[in-house]
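Usage

Read records sequentially. Each one opens with the input sequence:
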Amino acid sequence: MAFETPLAAEFFLVGRVLFGLVLAYMGLNHFQAADYLADYAGSKGVPAPKAGVLASGGLLVLGGLAVVVGAFPVLASGGLALFLLVSAVTIHDFWAAPAEQAQDEQTSFLKNVGLAGGALLLLSVGGTAWPYALGVGVF
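and closes with the structure output:
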């Protein structure tokens, strides 16, 4: 993909920064509310919920910051997309939630699916040179 149209590189940078910082902030919340989120994940049947919360928090922080600076774009965007899709289905299963929780779960499900879509879009250009990026990666 080429960033040849006027301001395309700049819009791509702003989009990366907004997307990545939101995910990194969400990851920080996993550390700040680890006990609460672990209890919630445990209620959803997640094995080793505290470890899962901390690992997913690390993935969100590191993946989000990697997107912001343009480092390891394939690993970062692919890992984020996978996590967001899996957590949407396993944690935010609104179809199985009690009626009083269904709307909140559906909102969280749709948020994760939408963010996964953004990560997949970044993954689709992960093998190209990103403008204003560190440009380091495995692929």
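Summary fields computed downstream for this record:
- The longest helix spans residues 99-124.
- The helical segments are 8-32, 34-43, 49-69, 73-90, 99-124.
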